[in-house]
Write a structure and sequence with these properties.
Shape of chain A: elongated
Helix content of chain A: 25-40%
Number of helices of chain A: 5
CATH topology of the largest domain in chain C: Enolase-like, domain 1
Distance between the termini of chain A: 50 Å
Strand content of chain C: 15-25%
Number of strands of chain A: 5
Strand content of chain A: 15-25%
Radius of gyration of chain C: 20 Å
Largest interface: A-B, 55 and 59 residues
Distance between the termini of chain C: 45 Å
Helix content of chain C: 25-40%
Structural class of chain C: alpha+beta
Oligomer: heterotrimer
CATH architecture of the largest domain in chain C: 2-Layer Sandwich
Bound molecules: flavin-adenine dinucleotide
Order of helices and strands of chain C: EHEHEHEEHHHHHHHEEHEEEEEHHH
CATH architecture of the largest domain in chain A: Roll
CATH superfamily of the largest domain in chain C: CO dehydrogenase flavoprotein, C-terminal domain
CATH class of the largest domain in chain A: Alpha Beta
Number of strands of chain C: 12
Chains: A alpha+beta (165), B alpha+beta (768), C alpha+beta (336)
Strand order of the largest sheet of chain C: 4-5-8-6-7
C-alpha cells in the first residue's frame, strides 16, 4: 500500500506461444490466464481447488490454476482448453465430448477436458473405474457424469496400435 | 404435408457444444468491456440488524475507486415477484435480514482496489433477535422480519377439495407421518456474475446468468425507475440454473447503480460463498402427511400441512409453496385432498424454486404409500399403479391431463429393474424402492405466459430464428434450432439463432417452470411454419404446383414425391425478394391455461396445458455398521411427450438423478450456526456428488405424443430429479426395514434408524 | 478470491532455501504444492510476507532412498510418486492407501507433497471459512483469540483436528521427520513433531524445513492399512480415519500401532487400547475388543467440529479401528 509493491517478470509457453508479462507475485495462474492473457476458457467455480473447472496442464501435469501461483509455472509450458484444438481442428477429446452429449452448461467442460487429456496421456485405455477416479476431482452439476464417462471411455476404446493423435 | 422427420428423435450433438468445448463460450464473468470496473459488495455480518448508518466516504479515497453505493443511493423500491409479495428492497436501507445480505458496494479499476475499499466502508448496526427455523419464527412473540406479516407467515396456500374428513372415515387404513429436511442448495458450477454497461443513449446493457431475460429486465426497470426499453438484458452462456436463477437479485441492481454512477461498465463476480448465500437456496421443510386408503390401497383422502423455511424475503414464495403439492396432485388420483402450505420468514438466505421441490414432500408422499402398502400386505408397485393418474382425468384443482404415460413409466422402470424378482426377496441390507411424480409445463402468467418467435430467411437460403427463450445449460438453444431446421427443411448449421436478448427478442415466460419446449419451442415451430408457407407460396408458381403439394427438405423446396421438381430454398428466397415479398415468419404459443387461476386467492383451474410424468426404481445397499448407503442402480423413466433429442433428454435424466437423488437424498444439506451462519457454503463442505459416487443409471424414454407440444414434446428437465429422490427414500427404508423420516439420508440418520429398530424403539418422525 | 500480497522466492538449492528462511523467519512460509497454504491465504487465515517455493528442490528432496535399516522419503515427493513407489506399494500398502485417499487425482495428487501433508494445518468447520464468514465473530484460539466456537463457553483451547491422511498413517508406522535449518538438524518422532495443540500443531522452528521422513524398513510380518471415512469418494478430508500397523510373528501380534485422524490436533495414537493385543493372536474377537477400547479412549475428543454429528463419529471409531486392524493383520499374514 505504502511502498510500491515489486512486480516480477513472468514468462511461459502458453498454448505453444511464448508470453512475457510483469505480474504481482501473488497472482494466480488463473488470474494471469483469464485477466491478462484473456484466455477465459479456464473457469473459476470455487477458487479453492474443489471444483476443478480451472484445471490446466503445466508441463503436462494437471494443476488447479486457482491454487497455483503463476510464478510456479515460470518458464514452463501451460496448456489450457484453448490450446487443445490444433489449427482450428478440434482435438479428439473435444470431439468425443461433443458427440456423446457430455457438455450441458459447459462450465466444468474445460477442466474435464484437461483431466481427460492427462488421463489418456498416461493410460490410453482406462477402464470405467479409472475414468471415474480421474474426473472425481471435477464437479459437474448438470450431467450426472454418465455422458462424460461415456465420452472418455469411447476415446480409450481405440485398439492398441491405432493412431492416437 | 409433413415428410419424414429428419431431426426430431435423433441423437444429435448440441449446436452450442463446440463453443463450450473450445472454451470460447462467454459466461458473464468472462465478459470484459473497455474501461470496465470491478465491483465488490459489503455484506451484513448479522443475521438480523437495524442499519443505523452506512458511510463509504473513506472507501472512495482508495486509489482506483470510482463509485460507491448503499441503499441511500437507490430509490429503495420494494421489489417482489407478485404485487402482494413486494418485500425486498434490493439494497436495504433500514434493516438487514440475513447474514450475507448486501449493504453497500464499490467499483474500482481493479478487483484488489475494490476489495481494499470495501473493507473501509463503515456500517453501524443495531443487532436484532433472530429466528432461524419455522418453529422459532411462528412462536408467539417472536421478532417479526416484516412487520405486516404476523407470526412471520409469508405465504399460506390453502386448498381443500372434496370431503377429506369423510374420506378418512371411509378409509380402511389411515397413516400420519411427518417428514423433514433442511435446505438444499443449487451449486450450479458457475458462480453468479453481472456485467452492466451504461450506453450513450441512457440505456443500460446487462449480462448475467438468468432464467428469464424479459422478467429480469422488467423488474430491474421498475427498481431503477427506468423505462423498460432502457434496460437491455443480453445473452451469454449460463452455467446452470436448476430454478436458482429465476428472479431478480441485488447483484444486478448494484452493478447497474454503480455503472450508472461511474458511467463506466462494471463487472461484479460472486465468490462461491456469495453464490450460496446471496442468490437463492432451497427451502427447509416440515411436511405432515395424513393419508387414508381403502383395502386395495386406493387413496381416498389426503391431508398435508407443510411448513417451509423461506428465509428473509418472498422471492417466488407463492409458487414454491404450491408446486410440491401440485406435482403430487397431478401424479395421483385424489378424490379428497387438503393442503395447507405455509412459507415462513426466517433470518436466513432467501429460498427459491428448487428442481426437486422438497425432498421432505415428494419422498414423504411416496414413502408413506409404501408403508400403507406394507400394512395392507400389498406390493407398493401395485399400489402405485392403482393410484396412478390416467390421461383424460382432471386433477383435484381442476387441470385436465391431456396426455399421460405414467403407468407405462412405472411398469417399464419396474420391469427393467427386476422389481418382481427383488421386492421382498433381496438379501439383508439391500433394498429396492419406487418413486413416481408429475411435473408442470408452465403456470398461468397472464400476459407474460406465452412465447413468440420470428423467423426470417436469408439470401443464401439460411434462416434466422429470433426467440426469447434462454438456455441455462439444458440445451434450449439446440431445441429451438432443431425444431426450426426440422420445419424449414434446412441443416442445423443453416439456422442462425438470436435468443434471450430483450432488445431483439419477443417476450418469453422464461426457462423455469419447464415451459421452454412447449411454449418457446411451440412458438418457433409456428413461426417456421408461417415462414415456410410464405416461401412455398412464392415457389409454387415456379414449380408449377400448388403450395400444398410442396415440401421443404435438404435445402430444397420440392413437389412431394417428385424430387426432380425442386427449387433450392436460396432461389426461392431470392425470388421472394425480387417480387418484393420478403419472407418473415411469426408465431406464438400461449398455453391454454386458466389465467384466473392465482396461487393464493384462486388455486383452481387449468394450471398448465399439459404435464409430464416419471418414475424411478432405485436399488441400494446399506452398511449396517456405519449407516452408509450405496446406490447400486437407478432406472429412470419419464413420459416427456416426445424426446426431440434423446441424447439431451438422457442428459436431463442423469443430471436430475444426480442432483435430486444421489446428492439430494444422501448428502446435500445446509448446516447453520446459532447466529445464522451457514457452515458449509463452499464446494468443499456442501456435498455435491462426484463421478466416483454415481451409480449405474438406465434411461427409459416414454413418449405419449402430446397433442399440444411441438412434435409431441412436453418437458424433460425435472422429473428424474424428483422420482430418484423418492425411489431412494423407499429403497433405504426397504433395506433397513423401517422408514427414515428425516432427509438427506446421511449415515448418521440411517444408523440411528437401524439402532432404534434393533433396540425395539418405534420409528419416529422428526422432532420440532 | 484474490491472494494477499507477498514476495515470492524460488531458491535453487536446499542451502539457499534455508539461508533465506533464516533471514525471513516466521514471516515467510514454505510453498510446496500450495494446496493447503494457498487456500488458507485466500481465506485470510495466513498472510505471510514471503513465500519460499520449494519447486527447484525436488531433485534434492523427492524420492525414496533405502538405507541400512531405514527408509528416507523426501519431503518434496508428491503423493502420486509416493504411492507409485514399488516399495511402498508392495510393503507399505497402508501408506499407499493414505496417499491415494488424499483429495483427488487432478487436485493435488500430482503436485501436493508428503512434506506439505505433514505440515498442513489442523482444520475445523468454524476455522476454515472466509473473511466474510468470520466478520462479526470473535477470533478463535487458532487465530490468536480466546474462544473456540465449536468448543463452546467452557473451551480453554483450540479443538481443530489433524485431517492429514498421510500424517495419520505415518504416525501409525512410527515415522520420524528430519527438520533442517541453516544451522543444524533435528530428528523428531511424529509423536514429538505433532504437539497436540491446534494453535500450533507442529513443532517446527521458523527457520526449519521438513526435509525427510524416516521410516523403519517394513520387513516381513508387518501389515499396514488405512481406513478413511469421508462424505464422498474423493476430494473430502476425513471425517474420521484410522491408520494401523501391526507386526505378527509366529502367529502372535508382536506390535500394534494405531492412529486416528480427524479427532485431535495430532494424529491420535491409541497406545493403551492396543496393548492388550501384544502376544495375542489376531483373532476377530481380540481385534474387536481393542477396537471397542479405542472407541472409549477416543470418546472425550469428540465435539461438534465437523460436518457430521459428533455422536456418529464417536460410534464410528470402533468400526474404522476394527476395519483397519483386520486389514493390517491380514496383510501381516500375507493377505492383501
Ligand atoms: C479441495 C481440497 C481437498 C483436500 N483433501 C485432502 C484430503 O482428503 N486429505 C488430506 O490429507 N489433505 C487434503 N487436502 C489438503 C492438502 O491438499 C494436502 O494436505 C497436501 O498434501 C498438502 O501438500 P502441499 O504440498 O500442497 O502443501 P502446501 O500447501 O504447499 O503446504 C502446507 C503447509 O506446510 C508447509 N510446508 C510445506 N512444505 C514444507 C516443508 N518441506 N517443511 C516445512 N513446512 C512445509 C507450508 O508452509 C504450509 O503451511 C485437501 C486440499 C484441498 C484444497
Amino acid at each position: 500500500m505504502d511502498q510500491p509493491r515489486p512486480k516480477q517478470i513472468f514468462g511461459a509457453q502458453v498454448n505453444g506461444q511464448g508470453v512475457e508479462l510483469l505480474i504481482a507475485p501473488q497472482e494466480t495462474l488463473l488470474e494471469v490466464l483469464r485477466d491478462r492473457l484473456e484466455l477465459t476458457g479456464s473457469k473459476e467455480g470455487c477458487g479453492e481447488g474443489v471444483c476443478g473447472a480451472c484445471t490446466v496442464l503445466v508441463d503436462g501435469q494437471p494443476r488447479r490454476a486457482c491454487l497455483t501461483l503463476a510464478l510456479e509455472a515460470q518458464g514452463l509450458s501451460v496448456l489450457t482448453v484453448e490450446g487443445l484444438a490444433q489449427g482450428g481442428e478440434l482435438s479428439r477429446e473435444q470431439r468425443a465430448f461433443i458427440e456423446h452429449g457430455a457438455i450441458q452448461c459447459g462450465y466444468c467442460t474445460p477442466g474435464m477436458l484437461m483431466a481427460t487429456r492427462d488421463l489418456l496421456s498416461r493410460e490410453p485405455f482406462p477402464d470405467e473405474a479409472a475414468i471415474r477416479r480421474q474426473i472425481s476431482g471435477h464437479v459437474c452439476r448438470c450431467t450426472g457424469y454418465a455422458k462424460i464417462v461415456e465420452a472418455v471411455a469411447a476415446l480409450g476404446q481405440a485398439a492398441p496400435g491405432e493412431e492416437q493423435p | 404435408m409433413s415428410p419424414q422427420l429428419r431431426y426430431v428423435g435423433q441423437r444429435l450433438p448440441r449446436v452450442d457444444s463446440e463453443a463450450k468445448a473450445r472454451g470460447a463460450a462467454l459466461f458473464a464473468g468472462d465478459i470484459r468491456l473497455p474501461r470496465m470496473l470491478h465491483a465488490k459488495v459489503l455484506r451484513s455480518p448479522h443475521a438480523h440488524a437495524r442499519i443505523l448508518g452506512v458511510d463509504y466516504s473513506e472507501a472512495l479515497t482508495v486509489p482506483g475507486v470510482r463509485a460507491g453505493v448503499s441503499g441511500q443511493d437507490s430509490a429503495a423500491v420494494k421489489w417482489g415477484v407478485f404485487r402482494y409479495t413486494r418485500d425486498q428492497v434490493l439494497l436495504p436501507v433500514e434493516r438487514v435480514r440475513f447474514l450475507g445480505e448486501e449493504v453497500a458496494a464499490v467499483a474500482a479499476e481493479s478487483l484488489a482496489a475494490a476489495e481494499e475499499a470495501c473493507a473501509l466502508i463503515k456500517v453501524q448496526y443495531q443487532p436484532l433477535p433472530v429466528v432461524l427455523n419455522v418453529w422459532e419464527a411462528m412462536a408467539e412473540g417472536a421478532p417479526l422480519l416484516h412487520d405486516d406479516h404476523p407470526h412471520n407467515i409469508n405465504v399460506h396456500v390453502h386448498i381443500n377439495v372434496g370431503d377429506v374428513e369423510r374420506g378418512f372415515r371411509e378409509s380402511h387404513l389411515v397413516r400420519e407421518d411427518t417428514f423433514s429436511a433442511p435446505e438444499d442448495s443449487y451449486f450450479m458450477t458457475e458462480p453468479y456474475a453481472v456485467v452492466a454497461n451504461p450506453l450513450a443513449d441512457g440505456s443500460l446493457e446487462l449480462w448475467m446468468p438468468n432464467a428469464a431475460p424479459h422478467q429480469k429486465a422488467k423488474a430491474l426497470a421498475n427498481a431503477l425507475k427506468l423505462p423498460l426499453g432502457k434496460v437491455i438484458v443480453r445473452k451469454c452462456a449460463i452455467g446452470g440454473a436448476f430454478g436458482g436463477r429465476s428472479d431478480v437479485f441485488p447483484a444486478e441492481f448494484i452493478a447497474a447503480l454503480l455503472a450508472i454512477k461511474a458511467q463506466r461498465p462494471v463487472r461484479l463476480v460472486y465468490s462461491r460463498e456469495e453464490n450460496s448465500l446471496a442468490t437463492r437456496k432451497g427451502h427447509g421443510m416440515f411436511t405432515m402427511i395424513k393419508t387414508g386408503v381403502d383395502q386395495e390401497g386406493r387413496v381416498l383422502a389426503r391431508d398435508i400441512t407443510c411448513y417451509m423455511d423461506g428465509g428473509a424475503y418472498s422471492s417466488t414464495g407463492p409458487i414454491a409453496t404450491s408446486v410440491p403439492f401440485l406435482c403430487m396432485e397431478q401424479c395421483y388420483k385424489l378424490p379428497n385432498v387438503r393442503f395447507n402450505g405455509y412459507r415462513v420468514y426466517t433470518n436466513k438466505p432467501i429460498g427459491g424454486m428448487y428442481r426437486v421441490h422438497g425432498r421432505a414432500f415428494a419422498s414423504g408422499v411416496d414413502l408413506q404409500l409404501d408403508l400403507l402398502a406394507e400394512e395392507l400386505g400389498l406390493d407398493p408397485l401395485e399400489v402405485r399403479l392403482r393410484n396412478a393418474r390416467q390421461a383424460g382425468e382432471t386433477t383435484p384443482t381442476g387441470s385436465l391431463v391431456q396426455s399421460c404415460g405414467l403407468t407405462e413409466c412405472i411398469t417399464k422402470s419396474a420391469l427393467a429393474a427386476g422389481w418382481r424378482d427383488k421386492y421382498g426377496k433381496l438379501p439383508p441390507w439391500r433394498g429396492i424402492g419406487l418413486g413416481t411424480n408429475s411435473v408442470q409445463t408452465g403456470f398461468p402468467m397472464g400476459i407474460r405466459g406465452g412465447s413468440s418467435a420470428m423467423v426470417k430467411f436469408n439470401e443464401d437460403g439460411g434462416a434466422t430464428v429470433i426467440s426469447g427463450v434462454v438456455d441455462n445449460g439444458q440445451g434450449n438453444d439446440h431445441m429451438l434450432v432443431q425444431i426450426a431446421a426440422e420445419v424449414l427443411g434446412l441443416d442445423l448449421a443453416d439456422i442462425q439463432l438470436i435468443s434471450a436478448d430483450t432488445q431483439a427478442t419477443p417476450n418469453d415466460p422464461g426457462s423455469y417452470s419447464m415451459i421452454s419446449t412447449l411454449a418457446g419451442g411451440g412458438a418457433v415451430k409456428a413461426a417456421c411454419q408461417d415462414a415456410l408457407a410464405q416461401l412455398l407460396a412464392v415457389a409454387a408458381p415456379a414449380l408449377q404446383a400448388a403450395p400444398q403439394e410442396l415440401e421443404a427438405q435438404g435445402g430444397q423446396i420440392m413437389v412431394a414425391g417428385e424430387p426432380t421438381r425442386a427449387l433450392p430454398i436460396a432461389k426461392a428466397v431470392r425470388l421472394s425478394l425480387a417480387q418484393g415479398r420478403p419472407v418473415m415468419g411469426r408465431g406464438s404459443f400461449f398455453p391454454r391455461v386458466d389465467n384466473k387461476r392465482e396461487w393464493l386467492k384462486n388455486p383452481f383451474g387449468q394450471l398448465s396445458e399439459t404435464f409430464s410424468f416419471g418414475a424411478c426404481v432405485a436399488e441400494v445397499e446399506v452398511d449396517p455398521a456405519t449407516g452408509q448407503v450405496k446406490i447400486l442402480n437407478l432406472v429412470l423413466s419419464q413420459d416427456c411427450g416426445r424426446a426431440l433429442n434423446p441424447l439431451v433428454v438422457e442428459g436431463q435424466f442423469e443430471g436430475g438423478a444426480s442432483m435430486g437423488g444421489v446428492g439430494g437424498m444422501l448428502a446435500e444439506e445446509f448446516l447453520w450456526t446459532r447466529e445464522g451462519r451457514c457452515l458449509n457454503p463452499s464446494f468443499l463442505d456442501y456435498k455435491v456428488p462426484l463421478a466416483c459416487d454415481m451409480p449405474a443409471m438406465a434411461n427409459i424414454i416414454v413418449e405419449s405424443m402430446d397433442q399440444s407440444g411441438p412434435f409431441g414434446a412436453k418437458e424433460a428437465g425435472m422429473s428424474a430429479a424428483m422420482s430418484a429422490a423418492q425411489a431412494i427414500a423407499g429403497a433405504v427404508a426397504n433395506a433397513i426395514g423401517r422408514p427414515v423420516f428425516e432427509y438427506p439420508l446421511t449415515p448418521a440418520r440411517v444408523l440411528k434408524a437401524i439402532q432404534e429398530k434393533q433396540a425395539g424403539l418405534p420409528a419416529r418422525g422428526p422432532q420440532k | 478470491m484474490s491472494l494477499p500480497h507477498f514476495q515470492y522466492l524460488a531458491p535453487l538449492s536446499l542451502a539457499e532455501a534455508l539461508e533465506q528462511k533464516a533471514l525471513w523467519g516466521g514471516q515467510a512460509a514454505w510453498l510446496s504444492g500450495g494446496s493447503d497454504l494457498l487456500t488458507r491465504a485466500k481465506q485470510g487465515l495466513v498472510s505471510p510476507e514471503a513465500l519460499i517455493s520449494l519447486k527447484h528442490l525436488s531433485p534434492e528432496l523427492a524420492g525414496l532412498s533405502e538405507e541400512a535399516n531405514h527408509l528416507r522419503l523426501g519431503a518434496q515427493t508428491t503423493l502420486h510418486q509416493a504411492l507409485s513407489l514399488p516399495l511402498i506399494a508392495r510393503e507399505l500398502p497402508g501408506l499407499a492407501e493414505a496417499c491415494a485417499a488424499i483429495g483427488a487425482p487432478t487436485l493435488q495428487q500430482r503436485v501436493a507433497t508428503v512434506g506439505g501433508n505433514l505440515c498442513a494445518q489442523t482444520r475445523c468447520l468454524h476455522y476454515n471459512q472466509s473473511a466474510l464468514w468470520r466478520a462479526g465473530l470473535a477470533p478463535c484460539f487458532k487465530l490468536g483469540g480466546e474462544v473456540c466456537h465449536p468448543g463452546g463457553a467452557g473451551a480453554d483451547r483450540c479443538r481443530s483436528t489433524c485431517q492429514s491422511d498421510g500424517a495419520v498413517m505415518l504416525m501409525a508406522l512410527g515415522a520420524s521427520v528430519v527438520l533442517q535449518s541453516a544451522t543444524g538438524q533435528r530428528t523428531l518422532t511424529l509423536s514429538d513433531f505433532f504437539t497436540g495443540q491446534g494453535e500450533r500443531p507442529q513443532d517446527i522452528g521458523p527457520d526449519e524445513m521438513l526435509t525427510h521422513v524416516i521410516l523403519e524398513r517394513p520387513g516381513p510380518g508387518l501389515g499396514s492399512a488405512y481406513v478413511k471415512m469421508a462424505s464422498r469418494g474423493a476430494v473430502d478430508f476425513p471425517l474420521l480415519s484410522a491408520g494401523a500397523a501391526m507386526r505378527i510373528e509366529g502367529g502372535l501380534i508382536a506390535s500394534a500401532r494405531l492412529a486416528l485422524g480427524a479427532v485431535f490436533a495430532a494424529p491420535l495414537l491409541l497406545k493403551t487400547a492396543m496393548e492388550p493385543l501384544l502376544g495375542q493372536a489376531p483373532t476377530p474377537e481380540n481385534l474387536a475388543q481393542a477396537a471397542a477400547q479405542a472407541g472409549r479412549d477416543a470418546a472425550p475428543f469428540m465435539i461438534e467440529n465437523h460436518s457430521t454429528p459428533a455422536a456418529w463419529r464417536a460410534q464410528m471409531v470402533p468400526v474404522v479401528v476394527a476395519r483397519a486392524l483386520e486389514r493390517a493383520a491380514s496383510r501381516a499374514q500375507g493377505g492383501i
